[in-house]
C-alpha cells in the first residue's frame, strides 16, 4: 500500500474537527483589556456551555445552530468565560460556563451534547462547541494543582489554570488515543464488539497511547492485546478531537500479519473478519448495526468499504 493513499480522507471534514475559519488568537488570551473590549463589542457572540451541553435551535431553512447571544445579554462572570476565537468576518466568540443552561428561549431551542450536536451543527458551530466542552471538562477536573495540591484559578480566558500557592501554570491536556481499522491480505476488515456494547454493534479497535510509546507501537500493542492479531504496516489517515473528556483520536489503517483472533474478553467481547460482501449482508440482515455517529471510526470503515455506509433505518 503506498503512503498517503488516504490523504483525501483527511481533506474531508471529520465530525468535531475545528473549522479552519476560526482564528483562536492565542496571543490575546492574556490581555485582559483586549478581552474586555472583545467581550463588550456588539458583534461578539456568546453561548452557554454546561455539563458538556449547549442550547441548539433549528432554523427555518432546516439547519441546526448554536443558540448565541450578544455578550451584553449574557451575565458577566469573567471567571467562567472562555475566549474561543474570531471568524473571517471579525466576529468574536466566547463560551460562558455555567452550572445550568439558561431557560429555553423558544419552543425549538433544546440542550444538546456533542454526540448529537456534532452531527447537526455546521463545522463552525461544532468546532466552537468542541473547544468549549474540552475546556469545560479540563477546568472541572483540574481545580487543584498537580504539583502542590492547592487550589488553581482560571487564567488566559479559560486556557490556563494557575496555582496561587506555587505559581505553577497548568495547560489543557490532550490524551492521545489510537483508533484503527485492521485489514488482512484478503482485504477483509477486523471489527470488534466491546463488552458493554449491544448485540450487533461492531466497530474499529481503539486504545490509549502509553508513556514511552510511539503511536505506531501503540496501534500494534492494542490490536495484539485486544484480539491477538499481529499488525505490520500502519498508515496514518486523520485525527479527531474527542473531548470525552480529553482525547485526541489518531486514526489509522493497519495491515494484519496474522489472522487468528483471540479476544481478550475484558475490553473486546467478540471480533470478526468481514469481507465487504459479508458486511453488506450483515447490515442487510440486521446482524450488524451500521456504524453511525460522529466518530472517526465510521470514516475509517467507510474508506475501506468504498462507499457510504448505510445509516440506521435505511432500506438496504
Ligand atoms: Zn501549586
TrEMBL record:
UniProt entry keywords in alphabetical sequence: Hydrolase, Magnesium, Metal-binding, NAD
EC number(s) on file: 3.6.1.22
Signal peptide boundaries: none
InterPro entries in alphabetical order: NADH_PPase-like_N (IPR015375), NudC-like_C (IPR049734), NUDIX_hydrolase-like_dom_sf (IPR015797), NUDIX_hydrolase_dom (IPR000086), Znr_NADH_PPase (IPR015376)
Presence of the UniProt keyword Metal-binding in the record: yes
PROSITE patterns: NUDIX
MF GO annotations: hydrolase activity
Chain ranges of the Nudix hydrolase domain: 172-302
Cofactor requirement: Mg(2+)
Region: Disordered, residue numbers: 1-20
Presence of keyword NAD: yes
Pfam family of the protein (one): NUDIX
Protein name (record): NAD(+) diphosphatase
Taxonomic placement: Bacteria, Bacillati, Actinomycetota, Actinomycetes, Kitasatosporales
Gene: nudC
